[in-house]
Structure formats: C-alpha cells, structure tokens
Amino acid sequence: MSTHAYELLSNRAVATAAVVYFLALLSHLVEWSALIGRRRADVEERELVGAGAPAVEARGLETPDEDRSERVAMFGRLGYLLTCIAALAHLTAVVSRGLAAGRVPWGNMYEFTVTGTCIVAVAYVALYRRLKLSWMAPAVVAFVMVFLMVGVLALYAPVEPLTEALNSYWLVIHVFAASLATGAFTLGGIASIIYLIKRRYPDADSGWMSRVPSLASLDRTAYRIHAFGFVLWTFAVLITGPIWAHQAWGSYWNWDPKEVWAFITWVVYAGYLHARATAGWKGRNAAILAIVGLATLWFNFIGINYFSTTSAHSYASVPSHAPAIVDGPAAGGTVTA
C-alpha cells in the first residue's frame, strides 16, 4: 500500500472507532437505565409486600427482576464488545498512521492524542476482567471518545517527516513510556474521581453507582494503577528524557516549560505514593492528590503546547484552525506531545 493509502486507512479507522465508541457509550447508558428500572421495581415490590400483598413468586408471575437482570447483562456485554471493536479500529488507526509516516506515530499532538487514547482503551479492555472494571465503562468510553474527537477536530495534522531534533530512536523509547504512563494515570484518575463521587453519595445504590465497588476496593484499584504509571513516568521523565535532551541540545536539563511541568507531575505522584506508604494517606486525601496529579499531567500535554511560546518541545504552533481529516497528504506543522 502507498503512503496515501495508509493515511486514508488511518483516518477512516479513527472515524470508525469514534462511531463505535459512541455506540458502546449508548449501550452502557441503556444498561444504566435498566439498573435504575430494576432498583425502582425492587422498591415497589417491597412496598407492595409490606402493605400485605403476596410476593411476585406467590402470585405465580414471572419475576420482573429476572428480566431486567438479563437486560442489564446483555447491554453490559454488548457495550464491552463494542468497546473491544472500537479499540481494535483505534489500534488499526495508530498502526496505519505509523506505516503512512514511515516512523512511530507520535510525532505531533494529533498523533499523541490518538495514541494516548488508544492506550487508555486497550488498557481498559485488557484489565477489564482482571480488575473487574465493568463499573468504569461509561467514564472510560466517554473520555476516550471525547478526547479522540478533540484530536480530530482541533489537532489534526497530515503525515509529514519529523524535524531533526525528533528524528531519534529516543523518540520511540521516551514518548512510548510517557504514553503508557499517561494512559495508566488517566485510568487511575478516573477511579479516584469515582471514589470521591461514591464517598459523597454513599446511599446512591441505584443505577450505575450500584455497580461501583466498595470505597476500599476503589482506593486499592486506583493505587495499583498509579503505582504502575509512576514507574513508567519516572523512566520517561527522569531517565530517557534527559538522555534525549542531551543528544538533541547538548544539555540534560534546560528548565523548559514542558520539562518543568513533567517534573511537577512526577513530584505530585511521588507525593501521592509516599503519603500512602508512610503517612497512611488513603481514601479522600489520596484521591484528591491523584486528581491534582492528573490535572498537571493534562495541562502539561495541552496547556504548554497552547500557551507557551518558549518551550523547545513545541516545534511549531498548534494549528489555529484544524483541517478536517482529508483523503490525501498535505503540508502541516509539527508539535511534540
């Protein structure tokens, strides 16, 4: 296949993934509504029995709860299946973008967004059964779909060669590690946000919240994911990043805005893990600190590229108007992630 054909395949795969993610989100929302309906039916049944009416089984009728449970399970399975299909299309978009460019597909903000959201989706699918993440489905699917569309509508750039500073094998090592860490921190941040919601509304046992595990389980899941992401972020920011900077610019550390914010993110997550290990910070305080870390992470990704005019990591300005996904290659600027 030609470069043009691979780029076209990538663009169409991104569009396909976005549509299927949307269908997966709809399926999970229907699942949510079925859960709410089941909860209401349970309440009404208890009220009838309390008023002296015989139970559904005693009246010789089919239990509505059984029908609703089957519907909940069906839409849950459908949502997960659609998410798997979308993640496969998403992965196809990333791979074909790399084949079109003849390099790793994270040379600008659009490519990093597509790759980063793909890692979030693939990590969710891979950990779905191991960590029992069905309760995270609506939040993860919505996050991936929204950021993928932001990438398409606001950050799209056609395939082009890398600038000289980016043309290094350290691009593969450094950015891939940072992308994996970003995906892990995002999943951990979502778990922390849901923890705070459940803690704020402990009696919300209907609808989607009825699927959310206990606060202790949420806290433990967030910690495990953050610990994994921190190792990768340390490798990307404090090891491979300085080595690449020395190779490209002759200095291991330049106090570049992006370097500073990456280090701030590292400090916040180091504080999160240290506080849990030594001061016993768990629950609310740990969740808040994790969300602060997530905010610094995404500001480093988006804010620095948009607002900084001195960052050596911004090799061209973000396009003032994002071109629609096109069928053919065109010229465009490069912005590192």
- Class derived from helix and strand content: mainly alpha
Detail the poorly predicted runs.
Answer: 43-51, 55-62, 315-337
Record field, number of beta strands: 0
Cα gyration radius (Å): 23 Å
Total number of helices: 8
Query: What percentage of the residues does DSSP assign to strands (E)?
Result: under 5%
Largest sheet: none
**Oligomerization state of this entry?**
single chain
Shape, principal axes of CA atoms: flat
Give the total of domains: 2
| H-E string | HHHHHHHH
Overall residue-averaged pLDDT value: 81
Helix content: over 70%
Distance between the termini: 28 Å
Which SSEs are present, and which pair or pack?
Blueprint: H1 3-50, H2 64-101, H3 109-127, H4 137-154, H5 169-200, H6 215-249, H7 257-279, H8 284-307
Helix pairs in contact: 1-2, 1-4, 2-3, 3-4, 3-5, 5-6, 5-8, 6-7, 7-8
What does this structure look like?
With 337 residues, the chain is an all-alpha fold. The chain has two domains: 154 residues, no CATH class; 164 residues, no CATH class. Helices cover 70% and strands 0% of the residues. The protein contains eight helices and no strands. Helix 2 runs antiparallel to helix 3 and helix 7 runs antiparallel to helix 8. The C terminus is likely disordered.
